[in-house]
């Protein structure tokens, strides 16, 4: 009783700040204030679906699922393995990604465009040769399209399963359309604007997708050897198991990730809902969502 009435809010605040700092970095509070406090027009109004999805704790699961799914394109995986340095600085990469999502989702139109321009400048320098001898470029429209599709699909699936307020059918289409605005700015040609179009475009990539040794190593890193403190291993494991449950069965087979479908409904998803709700509870006092929102 004393914990809830006296220490509860303080405990929740400490947990929330620890999570927020991990995701947004030490400059997260300043970034959040700048993103929301700078006056000016935005790409997305306050009622747009993208704001609801990106501000929900379900993004923790969606983000992991997106990384696993994206790794199944050999050229995209080669670019990540050769240039991102995600293993040496996984939290830094997460913080840069979360800040980009926050700026483009909630920031002014000018700051969103500047964030996009920075990403495009980086993409222009990333090129090389995959293990199978094929050249790759991070600004290849085909690769940009795959990364975008896998990300949108994972974020939306996670939100619909674990989000506090799932979207209706129109809202799902609205989210895909909102994300198409960002994708177009990043150089993705003709991105989908409805959920049906998203599913059709994903299917078009199926013949190009398979797990390389780098993709399987990435899955092992993310699922078995995550860069999280010992005390966070159990909740992280729950999030990871639920991220796997969002993937197509063929994808988990390619990555050699074990899954037991009957167990997903009995315990994996309920635990995922509980952990996501716990993260949402911890972040609620200061409205610090999964991005610096």
TrEMBL record:
<protein>
    <submittedName>
        <fullName>DUF2236 domain-containing protein</fullName>
    </submittedName>
</protein>
<dbReference type="InterPro" id="IPR018713">
    <property type="entry name" value="MPAB/Lcp_cat_dom"/>
</dbReference>
<dbReference type="GO" id="GO:0016491">
    <property type="term" value="F:oxidoreductase activity"/>
</dbReference>
<feature type="region of interest" description="Disordered">
    <location>
        <begin position="23"/>
        <end position="47"/>
    </location>
</feature>
<dbReference type="Pfam" id="PF09995">
    <property type="entry name" value="MPAB_Lcp_cat"/>
</dbReference>
<feature type="domain" description="ER-bound oxygenase mpaB/mpaB'/Rubber oxygenase catalytic">
    <location>
        <begin position="51"/>
        <end position="265"/>
    </location>
</feature>
